[in-house]
Amino acid sequence: MTIEVRVPTLGESVTEATVATWFKKPGDAVAVDEMLCELETDKVTVEVPAPAAGVMGEIVAAEGETVGVDALLATITAGEGAAPAPATAPAPAAAPAPAAGGGSVDVMVPTLGESVTEATVSTWFKQVGDAVVQDEMLCELETDKVSVEVPAPAAGVLAEIVAPEGATVGASAKLAVISSSGAGAALSAAPAAAAAPAAATAGKDVANAPSAEKAMAEAGLSADQVTGTGRDGRIMKEDVARAAAAPAPAPAPAPAPRAPVAAGDAAREERVKMTRLRQTIAKRLKDSQNTAAMLTTYNEVDMTEVMALRNEYKELFQKKHGVKLGFMSFFTKACCHALKEVPEVNAEIDGTDIVYKSFVHMGVAAGTPTGLVVPVIRDADSMSFAAIEKAIAEKGKRARDGKLSMAEMQGGTFTISNGGVYGSLMSSPILNPPQSGILGMHKIQDRPMAINGQVVIRPMMYLALSYDHRIVDGKGAVTFLVRVKEALEDPRRLLMDL
């Protein structure tokens, strides 16, 4: 029997994708749910699993081709020469459990994203001997950018953990082995496994991180004893560690002389290994300082006109477009306008060449519970205010939820960082290599200003442009910042392209 492999649903408003990579070729044996290919859209990277076990037949859409939703990608001849995994793959929920003595299924590292070759095993949610249900989370991996949860490919019993916590694994490494001989027990445990998260999040609108649930169980803490710092109060693993360390150190079993101050300080210290994301942030920031001839120029902008325009149209804007009108769309538009006049700020160095970009892929720095990430709004220079606000809101939420793909954080040509949301009055942002410019926004603060010979109170914001002096001269940097200031102080200039 021939089974068709088709393009899955790509997401709201996404109608086409590009075939990026085929992991199988005609004649290869494939297991059910094994990844066959990877599709790229302008928003996300989508993996296409095998709908059945068998032999790879014809590849209809080759790498590089653009395909629509539900388009035919390939065919599979079911049953013939099937890969070993299907023999132990879980049957549908209504089917009887596999007989004892069945085979085993390898748990492999999933696709980590473009250019990511390794990850660190941060947390195992199951132990050897535990029953597992298909698609139940087994462990969590950390890469340079995101955390990746690894689901069980089949029901059974966790027979072996090949990569323990803290181990660094490659992109195609084996993590564990599931024995399908215990699939019956795992299936019977499914209702309990499904009920556990509900109990853990009772009274909350959001689920806690799986690694946090495990840490709370090990520490003997309940959710109401831990203050969550994640999105919407979600409890993270670090929150559990802080809660567990909160009580004062237990007294020594027997009286002892007063310890030196240094020893006492050591007892109150906590040593925590940096996450891969934090290590990458540290390395990239230091590399940026060591490589670029970084300089920062400052200016200030009167936000009166932007605030008035926003207050006048914000309700109508939200009613029509379904998204709030914020300040970021004004700043994005102003920067795109200024980059046209000063293209070197939108360029990068490649060896002894300067590469000028005729487009703007705007990076928007976003703080998350695990560190700073910079999702990229592609072709921001051709987008409307509403499209920019929607893109920023959507990518910001995905960033806080840890669901950004690697592709969504690559390819930026210029970056905006808004430290003002945290109360920063002035700072010098660090370049995001290989970009040559980054704009720092800051807190809006009422200050007395001299306007037409009169002292008036105006809502003012300091702006900072850090730039690579190797390709951006002081004149260009100052001109860029002045153009941003002019566009924000008279937003009509953006409409008139002045």
Structure notes:
The protein has 3 domains: 1-89, OB fold (Dihydrolipoamide Acetyltransferase, E2P) (Beta Barrel); 98-200, OB fold (Dihydrolipoamide Acetyltransferase, E2P) (Beta Barrel), CATH 2.40.50.100; 276-496, Chloramphenicol acetyltransferase-like domain (Chloramphenicol Acetyltransferase), CATH 3.30.559. It is α+β, with helices and mostly antiparallel strands and 498 residues long. The radius of gyration is 27 Å and the shape is globular. 34% of the residues are buried. It has helices at 84-88, 183-200, 210-219, 237-245, 261-267, 276-291, 304-321, 328-341, 385-400, 474-489, 492-496, and strands at 2-6, 16-22, 29-30, 35-40, 45-49, 54-59, 66-68, 72-78, 104-108, 118-124, 131-132, 137-142, 147-151, 156-161, 168-170, 174-179, 294-302, 347-350, 353-356, 362-364, 366-368, 371-373, 376-377, 414-418, 437-441, 445-451, 454-468. The strands form 7 sheets. Strands 17, 20, 23, 24, 25, 26 and 27 form a 7-stranded mixed sheet that branches. It has a 4-stranded antiparallel sheet with strand order 1-8-6-3, with no helix packed on it. The model is unreliable at 83-101, 189-205 and 248-252 (pLDDT under 50).
List the helices and strands and how they pair.
Layout: E1 2-6, E2 16-22, E3 29-30, E4 35-40, E5 45-49, E6 54-59, E7 66-68, E8 72-78, H1 84-88, E9 104-108, E10 118-124, E11 131-132, E12 137-142, E13 147-151, E14 156-161, E15 168-170, E16 174-179, H2 183-200, H3 210-219, H4 237-245, H5 261-267, H6 276-291, E17 294-302, H7 304-321, H8 328-341, E18 347-350, E19 353-356, E20 362-364, E21 366-368, E22 371-373, E23 376-377, H9 385-400, E24 414-418, E25 437-441, E26 445-451, E27 454-468, H10 474-489, H11 492-496
Helix pairs in contact: 3-4, 8-9, 8-10
